[in-house]
Amino acid sequence: MDGICKFCNKQAKLVESHIIPLGFYWQLVDENGNIAKLLSPFDDEHPKRQPNGFYDYFLCDEHEKQFSDVDSYACALLRDSNPKEMKNGWEFSDVNYKLIKLFFISMLWRAHWATNIFFKKINLGRCQ
Ligand SMILES: [Zn+2]
Q1: pLDDT at 5
Q2: Ligand 1 centre and the CA of 56: distance in Å?
Q3: Pair type for strands 37-38 and 48-49
Q4: Which of 11, 44, 59, 104 is the most buried (most CB within 10 A)?
């Protein structure tokens, strides 16, 4: 699919961009191997299965790849590490603040550009 990359603003072949990295979907499979349904934020919409996650086409290949390091870091930290459980959350040690901050900002930015109704209420305003 050709279009304008939302990062570089150039005409390019757009590639599949996951809004929430696929590495985070391991929790959506229950003990029987069934893919869990995601709840809809809308009262009139039934829960749906999203086995391949949420993705859209708004980045060229070069700029999609730039999220790889922060996505990998966030998966390793949030999914694979063993944080200390606290009263109101978890405490992670040895966190690369710059990378985890970039991860959350990038996920929000990707959600802004996603056309799926799941992200409909995320609007960062003008982003170019
Ligand atoms: Zn680009």
Answers
A1: 97
A2: 14
A3: antiparallel
A4: 59
Instruction: Measure the CA angle with vertex 97, ends 93 and 103; round to 5°.
Output: 115
CA of 36 from ligand 1 middle (Å) equals: 33
5 C-alpha to center of ligand 1: Å? Answer: 5
Position 50 scores a pLDDT of 63
Q: Which residues of the chain have pLDDT under 70?
A: 25-30, 33-52, 127-128
| pLDDT reported for residue 77 | 92
Beta bridge partners of 16: 57
Residue boundaries of the structural domains of the chain = 2-119
Residue 57 CA to residue 5 CA, distance in Å, equals: 9
Stated pTM of the model:
0.79
Report the alpha-carbon distance of residue 19 to residue 106 in Å, rounded: 9
The token pair that represents 57 in the structure block: 């086409």
Instruction: For residue 106, report the distance from its CA to the centre of ligand 1, in Å.
Output: 14
